[in-house]
């Protein structure tokens, strides 16, 4: 077999335009500064090639249809056993923060005054109250609140016995105070 001669295909190179500027007065450089060579064009970082250069297509932000809507529809669609617990939690939140606005955000009833302080949500086995305050502001000697985050704890209600009115009122008021 005869060996083929491989030739490199030359690609046109881009020439960058040279900026011309007015002459400036610069202070005299020291002897050491004069000896250091300036960075060459090759030493500058080259733009990414291949997959790194391709950008992902921008996905349009899809606004939830229920954003800002009244929360009554959320409660109406819940199973009866969880609806009872959610309604009890809702009444306690309204009692602790009577001026709070209730609306749908992130698919759940969200309560806010100057800032959001709590939300209600459900799972297949419980109803829950998310309290948006650091754990050190929430007095919980019995350990009823769950979660490990720095800014939020959750009360999971699996039965009517899990609803401790005094504790819930205290926690919601602490969250309101934290956001005021």
Describe this structure in words.
With 180 residues, the chain is of the alpha+beta class. It has helices spanning 31-35, 72-76, 80-96, 165-179; strands at residues 101-105, 108-112, 116-122, 127-131, 153-157. Strands 1-2-3-4-5 form a five-stranded antiparallel beta sheet. Strand 3 and strand 4 form a beta hairpin. Helix 3 (80-96) crosses helix 4 (165-179). The longest helix is centred in the middle third of the chain and has 17 residues, at 80-96. The mean pLDDT is 82.
Keywords:
alpha+beta; 4 helices; elongated; 180 residues; five-stranded antiparallel β-sheet
Q: Would you spell out the secondary-structure blueprint of this structure?
A:
Blueprint: H1 31-35, H2 72-76, H3 80-96, E1 101-105, E2 108-112, E3 116-122, E4 127-131, E5 153-157, H4 165-179
Antiparallel strand pairs: 1-2, 2-3, 3-4, 4-5
Helix pairs in contact: 3-4
- Give the tally of β-strands: 5
Distance between the termini: 85 Å
**Estimated share of beta-strand residues:** 15-25%
State the strand order across the main sheet. Answer: 1-2-3-4-5
Shape: elongated
What sequence of helices (H) and strands (E) makes up the elements? HHHEEEEEH
Largest sheet: 5 strands, antiparallel
Question: Helical content, roughly?
Answer: 10-25%
| Structure classification | alpha+beta
Report mean pLDDT, rounded to a whole number.
82
Low-confidence stretches: none
The total of helices stands at: 4
Alpha carbon gyration radius? 32 Å
């Amino acid at each position: 077999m005869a060996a083929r001669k491989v030739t490199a295909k030359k690609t046109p190179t881009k020439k960058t335009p040279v900026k011309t500027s007015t002459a400036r007065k610069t202070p005299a450089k020291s002897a050491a500064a004069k000896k250091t060579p300036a960075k060459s064009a090759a030493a500058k970082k080259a733009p990414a090639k291949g997959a790194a250069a391709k950008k992902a297509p921008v996905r349009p932000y899809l606004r939830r249809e229920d954003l800002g809507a009244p929360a009554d529809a959320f409660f109406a669609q819940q199973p009866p056993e969880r609806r009872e617990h959610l309604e009890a939690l809702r009444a306690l939140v309204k009692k602790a923060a009577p001026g709070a606005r209730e609306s749908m955000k992130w698919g759940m009833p969200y309560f806010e005054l100057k800032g959001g302080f709590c939300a209600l949500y459900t799972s297949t086995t419980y109803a829950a109250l998310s309290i948006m305050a650091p754990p050190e502001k929430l007095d919980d000697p019995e350990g009823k609140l769950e979660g490990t985050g720095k800014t939020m704890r959750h009360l999971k209600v699996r039965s009517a016995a899990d609803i401790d009115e005094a504790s819930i009122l205290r926690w919601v008021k602490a969250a309101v105070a934290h956001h005021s």
